[in-house]
Amino acid sequence: MTTAQAPLRSSRDGHVVVLEINRPAARNSLNEAVLTALNSELHAIRNDDSVRAVILTGAQGTFCAGADITAFDAIRNDGLLGNRAATGGAIWAKLGRFPKPVIAAVEGLALGGGCELALACDFVIAGESAKFGVPEVKLGVIPGGGGTQRLIHAAGKPKAMAMLLTGELRSAEWAYHAGIIAEIVPDGDALAVATAMATRIAANSPLAVALVKDAAVQALETSLAQGLEHEKRNFHVAIHSADSREGQAAFLAKRAPEFTGK
């Protein structure tokens, strides 16, 4: 299989890796091949210290139209969600807990499992014509990749419930005001803007970025008191790091820091 035919294409620019879902003829819908490749790439990136930020996008103007409907029979045969690659297994959970920053660059459709992939990323940059939705109830099923949970956290109960119960699509402008996406850009610019942001993130201390992401995620999963304690522990790790000393020295010397992640 050539790179052009691969279900997921990976490219790299410095410390930034771009993962592109590549099934344009199927509107980049998710099948076993895509999910298996995504799982493999995330595992490799997780263990590569030279990678400091990741962008997830889709080929030819579509982010991801959701699950490949032809995979439904395989999911049924495996029992309740099971652990099949056809369901993505724990891919959405892995993405949501990924230690490095992940940006979704969304053009066109982000539906069902594709919307859930975007929600599992740290933030979303979307083209102005992008559409978001979780239309599973129209097919007699429900979101299974975190949609019912992450939408509530991102948009709050009223807006999330309106999306979940109607299955209707929402515009990028609606999603922006709902808190689902971070920025709207002209159509075709989502990847370029996401890449510029990822490059700026990659210039920061990789250790500090990992620690601040880890602390921030706790706000969704613990009480305020527990989150504050977690933040305090991460702060002490950061302040005693070599990157902290380098950042201080670079600031005082009025030069660019050279962070190592240590």
Structure commentary:
With 262 residues, the protein is an alpha/beta fold. 44% of the residues lie in helices and 15% in strands. The chain is built from 11 helices and 9 strands. A 6-stranded mixed sheet has the order 1-2-3-4-6-9, with helices on both faces. Helix 1 (32-46) links the parallel strand 2 (16-21) and strand 3 (53-58). Helix 4 (113-120) packs across helix 5 (147-155), helix 5 packs antiparallel against helix 6 (157-166) and helix 9 runs antiparallel to helix 10 (224-239). It is globular.
Strand order of the largest sheet: 1-2-3-4-6-9
What level of helicity do the residues show? 40-55%
Strand content: 5-15%
How many β strands by DSSP? 9
Distance between the termini: 39 Å
Given as residue ranges, the uncertain stretches (5+ residues, pLDDT < 50) are none
Give the secondary structure arrangement, pairings included.
Blueprint: E1 8-13, E2 16-21, H1 32-46, E3 53-58, H2 72-77, H3 91-96, E4 102-106, E5 109-111, H4 113-120, E6 123-127, E7 131-133, H5 147-155, H6 157-166, E8 170-171, H7 172-178, E9 183-185, H8 190-202, H9 206-218, H10 224-239, H11 242-253
Task: Give a concise summary.
The protein is α/β, with parallel strands linked by helices. It has helices at 32-46, 72-77, 91-96, 113-120, 147-155, 157-166, 172-178, 190-202, 206-218, 224-239, 242-253, and strands at residues 8-13, 16-21, 53-58, 102-106, 109-111, 123-127, 131-133, 170-171, 183-185.
